[in-house]
Amino acid sequence: MTALLAASLLFSYPQQGDTTYPIKGAPLVTYTIDYEPFWSPDGKRIALISSRHGGLKLHVLNLSDAPDNAWKMKQLTFGDTEEDSPAWSPDGKQIAFVSVRKGVSQICVMNADGTGVKQLTNGAYDNIHPAWTPDSKRVLFDTSRYIEENKKKRGDIGGHPTIGEPQDSFIDLASVNRDGSGWKRITTGGGYTYAFYSPDGKYILHRRPVGEKTQIWLMNADGSGDHNISGDETQDGWPSWAPDGKRICFVRRINGKLCICAMNRDGSGFIQLTDVLRDSTNPRWSPDGKQILFSRRMGSIFLSVIPAPPG
Asked: Which of 192, 103, 183 is closest to 150 using CA atoms?
């Protein structure tokens, strides 16, 4: 039993092999505005955005606390900024995140204890959804830096993606070193969002708006060989990797509701994991591969957890 299950008496799921998917009910882990969870590499902590101390701030949930203290989170960011999208570095030493400063979303990093905050991006364009390279040396992110260039080349393509924003069609991917140097553009033409490197660093998983569709795509780490793994499904988003790199979890709109799903990285082996009340987003596989943590939109936004499908 992992720390998350051991830390709370709420969880009473059967063993993985006895679980019937899609799961109809997932217990809530938290009861205030908590979202965009990201496991630490050792599986002992979770970085997330929470409103529990006022504003939308980066917090860390320590899963080794006693059950009655397990949900007393440590606040890491303060002041008049608003934070988003925390991402723990694979070496466990730093957390990348988005900080809205002077109305612009910028990529920042800090030490895992909240010290040493450094802003990596600057300028008037938005930079969002940070993700680390497996060696923890660089940070990948979505950038609006090239929106006007892409619009001039392609024109207003129209369409309103069902998962994401219309401007996602013009967003590209870029990366920088963990000290902010070495800006590198990875994609051109727009339509590349919410990206993550595979655990071996060979691939980039991401979401693409295609007209009114949103699909999960996979490319080589250098941006080549991009291809759709969603098939003809029209409303997929929020992809992330299983720790073994063989599967992904993501969100698909099914019967009008956003559900957590999984499939192999080639698009085969699809399985619907949840059919719970209201929409589910931002799924994250635990480092030991046994659980999937995600956000649930139930008036407010809370966290839930389910057993991961057996490999």
From this structure: 192
What does each C-alpha distance from 222 to 126, 155, 175, 188, 214 come to in angstroms? 22, 26, 11, 12, 22
CA neighbor of 2 nearest in space, from 261, 275, 305: 305
Of 29, 10, 41, the residue nearest 296 (C-alpha):
29
One-character DSSP codes across 179-221: TS---EE---SS--EEEEE-TTSSEEEEEEEETTEEEEEEEET
Domains of the chain are 35-274 (2.120.10.30)
Q: What is the pLDDT along the chain (311 residues), one digit of tens a residue?
A: 333 433 332 333 444 445 688 888 776 666 567 788 999 999 999 999 888 778 889 999 887 764 444 457 889 999 989 999 999 999 999 999 999 988 899 999 999 999 999 999 999 999 999 999 999 999 999 999 988 887 777 665 444 444 456 567 789 999 999 999 999 999 998 889 999 999 999 999 999 988 778 999 999 999 999 999 998 877 899 999 999 999 999 999 999 999 999 999 999 999 999 988 788 899 999 999 999 999 887 666 778 889 999 87
Q: Which of 96, 126, 208 is nearest to 163 (CA)?
A: 208
User: How far apart, in whole angstroms, are the C-alpha atoms of residue 261 and residue 57?
Assistant: 28
Which residue in 150, 254, 137, 244 sits closest to 193, CA to CA? Answer: 150
What is the distance, to the nearest Å, from the Cα of residue 12 to the centroid of all Cα atoms in its chain?
26
Torsional sign, CA 70, 1, 251, 135:
positive
> Is the pTM of the predicted complex or chain greater than 0.90?
no
CA atoms within 13 A on the CB side of 149: 12
- From CA 19, how far away is CA 302, in angstroms rounded? 23
Of residues 215, 204, 213, the one with CA closest to residue 238: 215
